[in-house]
Amino acid sequence: MIKAKRDDILGPLSAVSGIIERRHTLPILSNVLLDGSGDALAFLATDIEIQITAHSTVGGAEAKSLTVGARKLLDILRALPEAAEVTLQQQDKRLLVKAGKSRFILQTLPAEDFPRLAKPEGEVARFTLQQKALRRVLALVQYAMAQQDIRYYLNGLLMVVEDGRLKVVATDGHRLAFATLDLGVKLPRQEAIVPRKTVLELGKLLAESEDEVRIQLASTQAAFSFGAVELVTKLIDGKFPDYTRVIPTQHKNRLQIEREPLRQALQRAAILSNEKFRGVRWVLGDGSLKIVSSNAEQEEAQEELEVNYAGEALDIGFNVNYLLDVLNNVAGAEIECAFGDSSSSALISYASEKEFKYVVMPMRI
Q1: pLDDT digits (tens, 9 = 90+) for 311-323
Q2: At what angle are helices 70-79 and 6-17 packed, to 10 degrees?
Q3: Which of 51-60, 193-202, 284-293 has the lowest mean pLDDT?
């Protein structure tokens, strides 16, 4: 029997439930494993690729394990009053949940049938970061990950440990985001492609705090431990594109511009862009940037901004969504865009983010 305040059960259960899919071929994957011993209670959820464990201190936990429907238990706890004292008690193959005069009886499945990820083998890179630092560096690039690309290695984020730095890269083949973070310690080089779902889950779970997150990168798995949570994930097996060849270094035409006016101008121009291709033209001249869009109904939008530009006259097309993604996700007052010609990719960087680069391919309009 387990007795605890509602939030002592609800908190860790919420932390692990995010990865549970609503529909599973294996019914047990819709369940959460409760593992009790002494005053410790562990909650474990998995979708076979990712495993999250969260720990809580409760009263009178027996050395028992069971699995119960995660969504139903979560909904019951959320519907109870905040100050409720909750009792969990196993009765044969069921779980009795009591709070005040409320009683709920849930079906359970055997704990021994619950799948767990095996421990990683081989070389492991271990390092620690502040939670807010990892959260921030992931946020700088994660929007550029592919979603359901047939090139499965793009449906994730590349982490590279080398030269005392953590490099993170995401690309969907049309644009690429790159950021780095100083680790303060030299480690053997290690590469890992972390699945998209794991990256998004970390974004939700990591706190905006200076508390530590312990990271282990192995050849087939990565583990992130912070607070009462441990997240273990399988890695994507594949060869990530060589990002160093994608980031242009020789572009001479440079444009300095404030982020917010550009973002607003692009949002307005996007309204009349072609719904399928989402193209906008950038027409660059001396001290001026014109943004032009049109659609199949012969409608047209034009925006003109005064900018710091003294390069060649250029007319170059982009997918407006790719430009808005970086401007919406990466804060900073001023950006710099570097261009080659109208068929070369553009490099976007920020005055305030020295370790960040964003490359976007041009499109024919």
Answers
A1: 999 999 999 999 9
A2: 140
A3: 51-60
Task: Pick the closest to residue 284 from 301, 300, 305 (CA basis).
Answer: 305
Predicted pLDDT at 62: 67
Kind and range of the H or E run holding 120: none
CA distance 73 to 132: 30
Q: Is 225 helix (H, G, I), strand (E, B) or coil?
A: strand
Tokens 């409320």 locate to 102
Q: Using alpha carbons only, give the angle 108, 109, 115 rounded to the nearest 5 degrees.
A: 135
Phi-psi sector, 49: left (phi>0), alpha (psi -120 to 50), beta: alpha
Q: How many CB atoms lie within 10 A of CB 242?
A: 7
Distance, CA of 1 to CA of 320 (rounded, Å) = 57
Angle of helix 320-329 relative to helix 259-270, nearest 10 degrees, comes to: 140
Flag whether pLDDT at 60 surpasses 70: no
CA distance 159 to 91: 46
On the question of pLDDT at 59 being above 90, the answer is no
- Token pair listed for 111: 């704990």
Contact 65, 111 (CB under 8 A): yes
Distance in angstroms (rounded) separating the CA atoms of residues 356 and 180: 7
- The DSSP-derived string for 246-288 is HS-S---EEEEEEHHHHHHHHHHHHTTS-TTT-EEEEEEETTE
Q: What backbone phi and psi angles, to 5 degrees, belong to 20?
A: -80, 120
Q: How many CB atoms lie within 10 A of CB 162?
A: 16
What residues have CB less than 8 Å from 358, skipping those under 6 apart? 144, 175, 176, 177, 178, 326, 330, 347, 348, 349
pLDDT in tens, 9-55: 999 999 999 999 887 789 999 999 999 887 889 999 999 999 999 99
H-helix or E-strand spanning residue 348: strand 346-350
CA distance 312 to 339: 9
Cβ count near 160 (within 10 Å): 19
The span from the CA of 49 to the CA of 47, in Å, is: 5
